[in-house]
Description:
Elements: H1 2-14, H2 21-44, E1 49-53, E2 59-63, H3 65-85, H4 92-108, H5 114-132, H6 138-169, H7 180-194, H8 202-209, H9 212-222, H10 224-233, H11 242-260, H12 265-281, H13 287-303, H14 313-318, E3 321-322, H15 323-337, H16 343-352, H17 359-377, E4 381-382, H18 390-400, H19 412-428, H20 445-461
Parallel strand pairs: 3-4
Antiparallel strand pairs: 1-2
Amino acid sequence: MNNYVIYxxxxxxxxxxxxxxxxxxxxxxxxxxxxxxxxxxxxxxxFAGEATLRGAFGVHLVIDGLSRNFLLMNAVVWLxxxxxxxxxxxxxxxYFFLALFLPVCNLAFVSGDLFNIYVxxxxxxxxxxxLSSTTSKTKQFWAAMKYIILCxxxxxxxxxxxxxxxxxxxxxxLSKEISNLPAGLIIAGLLAKAGVFFYSMWLIDLHSNAxxxxxxxxxxxxxxxxxxxxxxxQPIISGSYRIVVIFGVVSAITxxxxxxxxxxxxxxxxxxxxxxxxxxxVSPSSGAIYALAHGVFKSFLFLFSDELPSLDIExxxxxxxxxxxxxxxxLASLTISGMPLTxxxxxKDMVLSTLTWxxxxxxxxxxxxxxxxxxFLFLPSARYEKIKNLPSYLLLxxxxxxxxVNHDRKFLSPILLILTGILFYFIVKRFLRPLPRTLENINxxxxxxxxxxxxxxxxSVNA
Length: 463
């Protein structure tokens, strides 16, 4: 475990080489390649370990089943996104922050104490803001500003809860149960940062306006920091975790409802990020594998926006997409829909098999997901065209069909689910219209946060 910490500190130091323009691209690719191998070795060999730095009150780090899935997700998504990003003309500051993002997220996904989680999540927020605002585009800058303001407000709630817990227990370690009121504040802060519908509406604006590779990092990795924290804390907030499950179900259903009515490709994906986070949160035992799956197929879909002739769905349906490009889009769409023998199907089945009262509602969300992506499966096709980011798509395609995920070989029920979703899409598509964006207005966020805190605190106090 100590070696893994040293390894990430070396990555942090190497990131400074990106300030040299001639070394920046090779540095990024080397970091990504090495980290990709390390993460796969940790995952395949089921490595486990933990360490406490600087004594009993120091930083606690742990690698276990939960961490392994998030570390692999970080390695795959970061490498695929970086291979796209280095092809574009960016300044050295952008490349430095991109390099810095990798080891910071690695350390976030092995954090095992309350205060260290806060520090690394705030670092991810800051780096994400800087990455999103370095392109000098006005829309991206203001979307990034909304993101950092609302995420900082959310983490202040988390820090308040952590402080209250420390006064009661005298420790930031995860060995003691968190009492009801601090638990409610911690949950409220992490939910607002994790990409839960109603309380993470900054996500849609930022993800849809950022560059494709940044959108992939945001959806595939950045929001997973708070998701990881919720899952890591679940054993010591078990009495209050039921509110997380409820918000997960609501987010899953509401997200697909908004996505089905959306007409912009990247906004559809952003709405689905809000929905897919719900799948992760409803199942603490299987959510980690779904986080890995979501990182793979959602980053695939965001990166693929570079290949589309238009982001407007109505225009896209009237234009022809090269058949070789369509195959990649179809694979990513079928993976998120749960096609058998894909990582999406395996992860979805693991999550659904752990549910009780939530299962019928999550099946509704599954059907809505298929309906949202059915439109991409029936795009008119044209002759072959050159693909811009082929290495990234091949990497992500491999993990969509990854051989080391435990497939249970169910075929009938997933196919019936997909056929039901496609049929539902053709029935309702004439009635679909974009919904109001009132909730995305930053002026309404304070009111939503107050409601979130009240709900979480009331449920936690009565747990």
